[in-house]
Amino acid sequence: MSTFSLFDYFVAGGAALIAGGINGIAGGGTLVSFPALIAIGVPALPANITNTVALSPGYLSGSVAARDDLTPQRDRMRTLAPFAVVGGLAGALLLEVTPESTFRAVVPWLVLASCALLLAQDRVRDLVQSRSVAGPTGAVPTSAAGPALCATVLVASVYGGFFGAGLGIMLLAVLGVFCSDSLVRLNAAKQVLSFLINVVAAVCFAVTGHVRWQLVPVMAVAALLGGVVGSRMAQRVDPMLLRRLVVVFGVGVAIDLFVT
Q: 159 and 91 in contact (C-beta within 8 Å)?
């Protein structure tokens, strides 16, 4: 079992606090907490797993807050939930059988892909908003979830269980393409799907032995606190500027992972 110093706990907790705050304002906090774990000596694969387990409780508050917007789309969520669960589990199991060396080689590309998703978040939201107002051609009714939507959510959920950074943006884009509904409701659906995917993955990881459990309580509490602070600061901070800063940091992390 790994032994961590007081400084390591400070770094992990501080990164989780910042990640929770960023998620509460703009999204993309994983791009801070994940490399922080690598920086204190946790290998890439256990770092990703530990990060998922530690931050997964933070998705619950977003899901609870969105419950009023979920009521009109209960049928849709009942249909999509099994695909999110199965996809999240499949992604987690895929990660478990992936060799550390292979995951380490793939991580920089995943980080760059997450940065691209984060940078595109506003455009995705604008596209979803415009389609929800105009009523996209071929979109399914408010309470329904067609086969194409289910299949795409399944694919996105596999990615979420495997790595997860940028998952929320990906799900919002998928929902916006296939569903004719308001942005607020689609965002609520995204929150619940993200919660299911991350919790299923976290439960799977919890029994594998790869989780650095010493860090989880500190990071979980810090992330929840950061989420509260972030939600209160959301009106005072420019989310686009924050996302750009996170992207710059993420690109720097990816470059460092490429050369080390």
A: yes
